[in-house]
Amino acid sequence: MNWITVTGALAALCSMISFVPQAWRIVRSRDTSSISPTMYGFTVSGFLLWTLYGFGLGEWPLILTNSVCFLLALFILAMTLLPQEKKDAVADKIGPA
What local confidence, expressed as pLDDT, does residue 78 receive? Predict the structure, then answer.
């Protein structure tokens, strides 16, 4: 494996892992008051576009990485937009408070 492949794999791993702590914090605290829905809207859109770009190029690393990031960012955005009762219901299904 050359350094370019290793660098790309590490970048992909960092990108995917970076959303997990935020998503888990939301599940545990049920608090999204400090999250900007506008920013996450752009983030979700960006990951969707990167995924489509990956499909256009036929590049599975782009497709896989950006699909995972898209789903995690979409979860965070959805939890930010949901009313508290529904947010609690989703969080209860994923993990206890």
Answer: 97
In this predicted structure, the answer to whether residue 97 has a pLDDT above a threshold of 80 is no
H helix or E strand, kind and range, residue 37: helix 37-57
Angle among Cα 34, 35, 38 to the nearest 5 degrees reads 135
CA–CA separation, 87 and 84 (whole Å):
5
CB contact at 8 A, 79 and 90: yes
Q: What is the pLDDT of residue 13?
A: 93
Distance CA(50)–CA(22), nearest Å, equals 21
Burial of 48 (0-12, 13-18, 19+ CB in 10 A): middle
The model's pTM: 0.90
Residue whose C-alpha is closest to residue 30's, from 74, 73, 89, 77: 89
**Sign for the pseudo-dihedral over CA of 14, 15, 16, 18:** positive
Per-residue confidence (pLDDT) for residue 1, from 0 to 100: 78
